[in-house]
Design brief:
Layout lengths: L4 H11 L18 H16 L8 H8 L3 H4 L1 H16 L9 H21 L3 H14 L2 H12 L5 H30 L1 H22 L11 H14 L1 H29 L7 H14 L3 H10 L2 H22 L3 H26 L7 H58 L1
């Protein structure tokens, strides 16, 4: 059975009476208004936050379920690994299915996963629920290509910057929110609240998002195989993907283990305080739109190199001075700003490819990015179990150094 535009037409006819804007078959697109851009930003932010609510709650979860640090460390790994699976096998559908319906369906499935996690009585069921949440939290990977399709080429970098900023701010503040709620109401309440927020988001998106025409017509198996071929054949995509995967692994290693440092003997803070460190990172996220504009004006490859170098500097500060509050705060700010610069620049390179492959190209990038995050979370927890904070920083420095060397090699080849 083919997945093509003919399948979508009944959905379009059913939706023409709604208040939502529609992309008509005449290719006349809706005006890319600020309201629509804000809706996209909210969807990206709330969607991706689902993967990260667990991080400040890990200590409390482990105590409630009577499991070790290494066992509870599987929760962020499964959430991010599930996200990578969802991106790889669901996000490409954005090229062949009507996007609004696809996006709202994913939102409903996330709500189910969060409700399941809230009720999980055992570690095994919580692990399964975390994987389900990760797989279905692919909202941002469906929304971002949709926004890029609607905006003008001159708006591309700024749009990527704004939506990336919304995602990063949401990731960071999700830790703050979950830390406060977990401290006062317990970790299960956070999952319940997340489920309710997803239900509300589904109704908002159904009302405000425009309908769309699919940009490709092919079988699902062809769609997936073409995604892998694209990764193999396109050097720019491969380079950006590997760089993003390694750098996000380093970032994830830090955030997945920060709660253990904060609750440990060096600081002795609770999970609410651990979550508030996300506010520090969120403040630096305001830098993202600036990076997007710079990526439109200058070489994004240059910005990737600068961001990689700055991340290495941040980890050195965290390694040598992270047990002091000023060193921890400085490291967080530099690390998050540098990660944004690299991520937005890599995404700008990805979206410089032809528009008909945007969903599949972003699928490759984001799936590898999330796998890097899952591996980084696991490696960070392992590093902590072996050598404490020094082990975590060793993991981060190793990943960033590898990314830097590969980027330098690609730049030398590109210059030839």
């Amino acid at each position: 059975m083919r997945v093509n535009a003919a399948i979508i037409k009944p959905w379009q006819r059913a939706n023409r009476g709604s208040s939502a804007l529609a992309l008509e078959e005449s290719d006349q697109a809706p005006v890319f208004t600020r309201t629509l851009l804000f809706t996209f930003a909210v969807a990206c932010g709330l969607g991706i936050a689902n993967v990260y609510y667990n991080q400040p709650l890990l200590g409390q979860m482990g105590r409630t379920l009577h499991v070790s640090v290494s066992q509870i460390g599987s929760i962020p790994m499964l959430a991010q690994g599930g996200f990578a699976v969802g991106v790889l096998f669901m996000a490409p559908l954005g090229d062949v299915l009507e996007r609004r319906r696809l996006i709202t369906t994913m939102v409903w499935l996330v709500a189910f996963g969060q409700a399941l996690a809230a009720l999980a009585p055992t570690l095994a069921l919580l692990q399964f629920a975390s994987f389900v949440v990760g797989v279905t939290s692919v909202i941002s990977t469906l929304v971002l290509p949709f926004a890029i399709k609607l905006c003008s080429p001159k708006q591309r970098g700024a749009t990527v910057g704004l939506l990336s900023s919304a995602m990063l701010i949401s990731i960071l503040l999700s830790r703050t929110l979950s830390g406060v709620i977990g401290q006062n109401l317990g970790w299960r309440s956070m999952y319940g609240i997340a489920a309710i927020m997803m239900v509300g988001l589904a109704f908002v998106l159904r009302s405000l998002l425009p309908t769309s025409q699919p940009s490709a017509s092919m079988r699902y198996s062809e769609l997936i195989s073409s995604t892998f071929r694209l990764a193999i054949q396109n050097r720019r995509l491969r380079q950006s993907t590997v760089n993003g995967m390694l750098l996000y692994g380093a970032l994830s290693a830090f955030w997945a283990t920060l709660v253990f440092l904060i609750e440990g003997p060096s600081y002795r803070y609770g999970m609410a305080v651990a979550g508030t460190f996300g506010i520090v990172g969120a403040a630096s996220a305001m830098f993202a739109p600036v990076v997007g504009k710079l990526a439109d004006r200058f070489s994004p490859r240059l910005l990737v190199g600068l961001g990689t170098t700055a991340m290495l500097v941040a980890y050195l500060i965290l390694g040598f001075f992270g047990l002091k509050l000023w060193g921890l705060l400085a490291g967080i700010i530099i690390l998050d700003m540098a990660a944004q610069a690299s991520t937005i620049s890599n995404q700008t390179i990805v979206y410089s490819l032809p528009s008909e492959v945007h969903s599949r190209a972003y699928t490759v990038y984001r799936a590898a990015y999330s796998l890097g995050g899952a591996a980084g979370a696991w490696l960070g927890a392992y590093g902590w179990s072996v050598a404490g904070w020094t082990g975590v920083c060793t993991v981060g420095v190793t990943l960033i150094t590898t990314a830097g060397l590969l980027h330098l090699a690609s730049q030398l080849r590109y210059a030839r």
